[in-house]
Here is the input.
Amino acid sequence: MLSEGQNRTLTEVGAGTPMGELLRRYWMPIAGVAELEDAPTKAVRVLGEDLVLYRDKRGTYGLLDRHCPHRRADLSYGTVEDCGLRCHYHGWLYDETGRCLAQPFEEIAHPEARFKDRITIKSYPVEAKAGLLWAYLGPAPAPLVPTWEPFTWKNGFVQIVLSEVPCNWLQCQENSIDPVHFEWLHGNWSRVLRGIDGSRPPTHLKIAFDEFEFGFIYRRVLEGQSESSELWTVGRTCLWPNCLFTGAHFEWRVPIDDDHTLSVGWFFDRVPNEMEPFEQERIPCWHSPIKDPLTGRWITSHIMNQDFVAWVGQGTVADRTGEHLGESDRGVIMMRRKLLEQAEVVRRGGEPKAIVRDAERNGCIELPIIERDRHVNGFPKHQLAPEIAKTPGPILPEGFVFLAGQPEEVRRAYRRAMGLDTEPARDARG
Ligand code: FES
Ligand SMILES: [Fe+2]
Here is the structure.
């Protein structure tokens, strides 16, 4: 149980707050590269700041204040030029470093005044990696965007899925270090929701948590399995500071503000050996709905949707003064302590954990990975089991099991990549 003050410290993300300052030391994924190919500007809100992300005609990305410094127009309606983003209201033009490059009427009226030289707009660095666009809102010098090992894998079908979840980021991230929920929220609940009697998912017999350089590892022994299982020997990763990494997919929980979180899923599916070599031309990025429009209730059918139901159910900002933590929550307690400790490190002017600055090291950062060989070297097609066989428990619908609403063209591109059907080639757009 936490005090009200501790809960506030852990959950508030605005500039100047302890957690806001800690989280600003890390690159945050905020969009898919594919999104900006389809539309060159995107309104984003990150860590309580309203911004506009854009890609100019040269292909340079920028992240600027949402509001034009002239008279505050919304720059997500601006237009991109060869270099920079131009405000649609009076035509002032900005580049990705925040310089004002043009002020059409001022330059006619008072060309000698060079008013534009006195104008800057707030700007943050953006980098593309692994089909994602990453933003850094912290102090210079920016560290490197980590090259996590799966970003270097070949012969895989990758997709990115965004969902906006109306609750605070921390309850989402606490779910990244909560092995027991898998058995209940996904395994047992899925069975009840689908009216399936009889067999139950294997129960957790033992769990353990270890801190490592890039976060925490959680391990489990399930009924019917031994300590030689990779679920125990390798484990899964609660990736510092705001991500879950399960071995083939990442789930970042990016704070939009204190009350909203952008869930960013990055999923890798290795193609079978018969489909090699496979080069993905475009990594699709799609938005997953979280509410059923017919009932107004949260969608419960898919794994991450079930997580969202749990998170929003805890309240917009979970009241941790009223909770009763048990043995299953040891990881949650470790993570909260670490967050408070690391926020203090930043407050004292130090560098927090898991910041990557060594370019050589960043060629490929290894993580604990269950079934690494399968992801790296592949497998024959007859071993291509649907996801349902890879997850210990839930009974799930056909197709993409993690999030509801996968567009048909992404489903088809996935099936083609896997050699599951022979429909004529078409780009995955989404
Ligand atoms: S408000 Fe943007 S140019 Fe005037
Ligand atoms: Fe979950």
Summary: Residues 425-430 have pLDDT under 50 and may be disordered. The longest helix spans residues 330-347. Residues 68, 70-71, 73, 87, 89-92 surround FE2/S2 (inorganic) cluster (ligand 1) (CB under 6 Å). The longest strand covers residues 260-270.
